[in-house]
Specification:
- The chain is α+β, with helices and mostly antiparallel strands.
- It has one domain: Trna Endonuclease, Chain: A, domain 1 (3-Layer(aba) Sandwich).
- It contains three helices and eight strands, in the order αββββαββββα.
- Strands 1-2-3-5-6 form a five-stranded mixed beta sheet, sandwiched between helices. A three-stranded antiparallel beta sheet has the order 4-8-7.
- A hairpin with a 4-residue loop joins strand 7 and strand 8.
- The protein is globular, with a radius of gyration of 14 Å.
- The chain starts with a helix and ends in a 10-residue tail after the last helix.
């Protein structure tokens, strides 16, 4: 339950930030349970962003293939930029595109070092 609470708190943090930047925002019902949509969808001036949120304090982050496929399909169907939003303790949010994930034997993965090298932060995604 602690893991769910941490994840839900992270999702609400991101949702509130985006709302504060005048985005229309939706958090998926059953987020973290269903596999049919990203956790958060944000739209402003006709431009949409979709986020699969992870609050994970490890050296890498993995997404199971079924969820990864859903996120890729979501991006193709909607035309929305779709990101893995990784909240790291003490570091804040990093945003990785699905195409930047590495295919491994049992999952799609990005390391902390790779996320730092990509360096995509929330401020770079925001439309003013």
């Amino acid at each position: 339950m602690l893991r769910y609470s941490k994840g839900a708190r992270g999702e609400r943090e991101l949702l509130n930030y985006l709302y504060g930047k005048a985005y229309s925002v939706v958090r998926s019902a059953g987020s973290g349970v269903n596999s049919i949509s990203p956790d958060i969808i944000a739209i402003k001036h006709g431009k949409g962003l979709a986020f699969e949120c992870k609050a994970w304090d490890r050296s890498s982050l993995s997404i199971e293939p079924e969820k990864f496929d859903v996120l890729c399909e979501w991006e193709r169907n909607t035309g929305m930029d779709t990101f893995i939003a990784w909240r790291m303790n003490g570091q804040g949010w990093f945003f990785v595109k699905t195409a930047e994930m590495n295919k491994c034997e049992k999952s799609y993965t990005v390391t902390r070092t790779q996320a730092f090298a990509i360096g995509r932060r929330l401020e770079s995604l925001i439309i003013e």
